[in-house]
Amino acid sequence: MDAELDKSTDRPYLPLAANGTGQGLLLVVFALLALGVVVVHSAMASVNEPGLWYARVDVRHGMFAAVAGAVLLVLIRFFNYRWFARGGRLPWLAMGLLALAATCAALVYVPGVGHEVGGRYRWIRVGPREYAIGFQPSELLKIAMVVFLAAWLTRPQANPRSIVSFALAAVVAGGCISLVITEDFGMAVVIALSAGVVMFLAGVPWYYLLPTAAGGVAGGWYMITGSAYRMQRVMAVVDPWSEANPSAYQARQSLTAILAGGWNGTGLGGGVQKLGFLPEDSTDFIFASFCEEWGVRGALLVMALLLAWMWQCRRTSARASDPFGRVLAGALGAMIAVQALLHIAVNMVVLPPTGIGMPFVSAGGTSLLLMAFAASLIVSVSARATRRTDAPDLHTASASPSPQGEPRPRPRMKVPRHLQAGSSASQAPPRPRTARPRKRTLRPQTPGQPAGR
Amino acid sequence: MSVRFGRHDLIFVVLLAAMGFLGVRLVQMVQACEVPPDPQHADVAERIARASLGSTIVVPLPGRPGDIYARGRSSHVLMAGSRQVPSCFIDPSLLNETQLAELSRQLSGMLGVDPGELYVDLLARRERGSRFAWVKRQVTDAQADAVRELDNRAVGIQYEWRRDYPLGSLAGPVLGFTNDENVPGGGVHLAVFRAIQARQGRRVVLGDAGRRPIWGVGEQSEAPVDGCDVYLTIDVNVQETLQKAVSEAVTKYDAQWGTGVVINPWTGDVLAMASAPTFDPNNFGDTPPQAMLNRAIATPYEPGSALKPIFAAAAVERGVLSWQSRLDGENGVYHAHRGGRISDHGRRYGLITLWKAVVKSSNIVMAKVGEMLGNRQLFEIAHAWGFGRRTRIGLPGESPGILRDLDEWDGYSLRRVPFGQEISVTALQMVMAFGAIANGGTLMQPRLMTRITDPRGRELWACEPTAVRRVLSSGVAAQIRECLADVVERGTGRRARMDRWTAWGKTGTAQIAGRGGYVDGAYTGTWVGGAPKNRPAAVCLISIYWPDRHKGYYGGVVAAPYVKRVLETTLTYLHVMPDRP
């Protein structure tokens, strides 16, 4: 029996063992996390960094990756993405999350709280000087916006074709973009693209989106041509080897690292560009640093992981049991994929250098934890899919054949009609509080034991 | 299952296309820079190749130059060694102007250099992009510690091998020196430079962009190879005695310079070789170049009468004369046909034997000997005894002396060469010739270096005593030694007489040739002789060049007492049995 009832909603719930898509997502995430620990350590460990051990970026990254993995596993067990859709007309949890994120993002500009790294105010630091806890609110803002827009646009009363609804969503997205665009252009691009994907998936007509996108491009063009600094960065893509362009330095070093790696790379730990030549080698240019040591083969491996991620997210989105899940999984998955692709494109100098980290790989605790949170939301969606996934059935796969020698009949998961994806009645029926069992564990069932429902 | 193409599929396809584009582009990019690269990517490929080396820091590992040892009583004595001294250097390009000024101020206080000069120098080097400059070389350990205390990445201490001469000026001109850049300056240092020289090693370290070392590159690093040790025949005790004696003589008679050599006549070993004024290789920078000259080999001079026994013995050896042959002393003045005027400096001799002529040092008789031998034989004799050619002692700057070609000889030469004019010799040639008299007629090649060993003590090169040729029969050699012992007993060399050993030797008082003739009142006083008479253990020569004529200039006066002192000390030191009752 692979379908359990959801604890909170009494809806069908696939445990992870039976959730092939969820397993795939988790495998990709853990692979990237593990890769990130190795690559960040390789990039940072050889640098003489005086100070306390916990100040070392690679050590902290390893700890954060472990915490992120744990958070992911805990969340997919105990968290339900539908909580964000609660409230119907006013999805208050999603709204609260967005309000918190926006507040934090605004706090960056408050002197004393906002913290500067490399001339950019992207951080909040709280606490005494040496032990301050840093936090990058734009990461939270990005996810909160996607969650809120998905919940808002798929609430039962919503009409995605309504221009008012679109305008409100666009205003929210625009507000989020304007909060970060001056300090973190790359993040603004990711937020804009994610907002577009959410609206597109939620059913907003293309003729609303396209002019908006055109306006965004025009605005971006205006920003670029209006500032010599941004123009130089664009020129860095055209000619990264020009010594006359100071902004081309990062692009040049990144290309150098990738090309120095060649097909096979210099071997793990053998990279040289990370020794102070490649700037931001553990965050914004970790792909280049990775390419130097692992070569094109390693880069193609990472791309294959990304492909797996995108495919699993597409499938999760396609099989989601409700519109919110469909939009949420698709948008969050696309957001992470877009960020990764932007990172790779910047590293390959296909796009001008902007600070975009590689999800799950780049050093940065906030990003890691929140990306794990996003992944857990997607897995949570996949665990409440309408259709069976391709994963082999837990019991038939693990248990020995029955004494009669014939295969056990495959249990079928019944999905109520009103819960199927695309159904208009996606609201949960009243929760039977009394009938809920205390604890529900997954164990192989013997023929004599009744199903635990 | 419906095959509807949903919006999520469109998103997926767009992302897939983007990723495909990036993947293809990555492959293309790497392909374009493969080896051999396309022409239009050649500069990029070269840049990549350079960048993939990172910043390599090459730390020189100085090897230890070889030691030079002399002999002592029972062991070898270090004459020239090396020790490590700290030197302070700086990498100016790591600092900006303010930091440079601050650092110059700090360093000047520690090391005692002028802050202004240092700052200007460093600034200029920084402008040139220099990454290395000495602040001060050879600082003290305390100063080095103080510099380390600064904890400044731009400043460092590097240890260098510095040449050290524990015995100071002892045999300085023989040893020569090596400067701070390991360039040899004469003497043994130059002669066996390749052996002494260490091969510098290097440690190649991969550095990060700030040139902080990350890890060593073993394949490119090399261990230094230390230099080889050289062992000399010089005996420090004999050298000390001789050097003191020569210096004293030069000081006492206010001479321009003096030189002395002590050899073991049987092996040709040079036991001591001194020049005065001498110099201390530890302070080679403060020494005038003349003081660095090894006068015993570098400066030829006319030996004067000291050459008489050689031609007399050669004449006897060739059967032209015997010791008892009587020759006319011409009563003190001899006007030879086409041979100029020769006098005996106030002494008048009639018919005297060759023996007595040598003992009394008669110029006229020696001129007659020359007449009897003829120019060709005289030339052959001089050449056979090693004059006019280098002794091949193996030191740089050795002079062959001046022995003119035979066709330039005339009636003057015929009568002057036998008593030591018109011929210039080096002290070493002279002492080697007397060594042949001492050892029974074999001219030996002088030996200064006995062996060279590698740092592990294995012998790389050895020099055995080498005979050049036989110049006398042992009988004639014994006779001439008897004759020369008479010089000490009743001739011109009475001051060389020793109480315990029978000394023999010959004075030489030669006028110094200047432009267009002999300089008035300028003489070289020489005594060359050995002891004991029957089996000489050492032969010693001391020449005093241009002493103050009012204080004395005869070889028997300015040199003989000092030779006596050197020989007495040497023979005692060598445990030679006294042969005088």
Uncertain segments of chain A:
388-404, 423-427, 445-453
C-alpha-based Rg of chain A, rounded: 23 Å
Approximate strand percentage of chain A: under 5%
Biggest sheet descriptor of chain B: 7 strands, mixed
How far is it from the N-terminal to the C-terminal residue of chain B, by CA? 136 Å
Task: Give the CA-based shape of chain B.
Answer: elongated
Q: Which architecture of the largest domain in chain B does the CATH hierarchy give at level 2? A: 3-Layer(aba) Sandwich
Largest interface: A-B, 45 and 38 residues
What structural class do you assign from the helix and strand content of chain B? alpha+beta
State the separation between the terminal residues of chain A, measured CA to CA.
Answer: 10 Å
Portion in helices of chain B: 25-40%
The helix content of chain A, as a percent range, equals 40-55%
Mean pLDDT of chain B: 90
H and E order of chain A: EEHHHEEEHHHHHHHHHH
Corresponding CATH superfamily of the largest domain in chain B: DD-peptidase/beta-lactamase superfamily
Shape, per Cα inertia axes of chain A? globular
Key features?
heterodimer, A: mainly alpha, three-stranded antiparallel beta sheet, two-stranded antiparallel ribbon, 4% strand, disordered C terminus, B: 581 residues, alpha+beta, Penicillin-binding protein 2a (Domain 2), Beta-lactamase, seven-stranded mixed beta sheet
Task: Give the arrangement of secondary structure elements.
The complex is a heterodimer of chains A (453) and B (581).
Chain A: E1 4-5, E2 12-13, H1 20-45, H2 57-78, H3 92-107, E3 114-117, E4 120-126, E5 133-135, H4 137-153, H5 163-180, H6 185-202, H7 206-226, H8 228-238, H9 248-261, H10 286-318, H11 323-347, H12 365-382, H13 394-398
Antiparallel strand pairs in A: 1-2, 3-4, 4-5
Helix pairs in contact in A: 1-2, 1-10, 1-12, 2-12, 3-4, 4-5, 4-6, 4-11, 4-12, 5-6, 6-11, 7-8, 8-9, 9-10, 10-11, 10-12, 11-12
Chain B: H1 7-32, H2 42-51, E1 55-61, E2 68-71, E3 76-90, H3 97-111, H4 115-127, E4 133-136, H5 141-150, E5 155-164, H6 172-175, E6 177-178, E7 184-185, H7 187-191, H8 193-196, E8 201-207, E9 213-216, E10 229-235, H9 236-252, E11 257-264, E12 269-276, H10 295-298, H11 308-317, E13 326-328, E14 333-336, E15 340-343, E16 351-353, H12 354-360, H13 363-384, H14 411-416, H15 427-438, E17 442-445, E18 449-453, E19 459-462, E20 466-470, H16 474-490, E21 504-514, E22 517-531, E23 538-545, H17 555-558, H18 560-573
Parallel strand pairs in B: 2-10
Antiparallel strand pairs in B: 1-8, 2-3, 3-4, 3-5, 6-7, 8-9, 10-18, 11-12, 11-23, 13-16, 14-15, 17-20, 18-19, 21-22, 22-23
Helix pairs in contact in B: 3-4, 9-18, 11-13, 11-16, 12-16
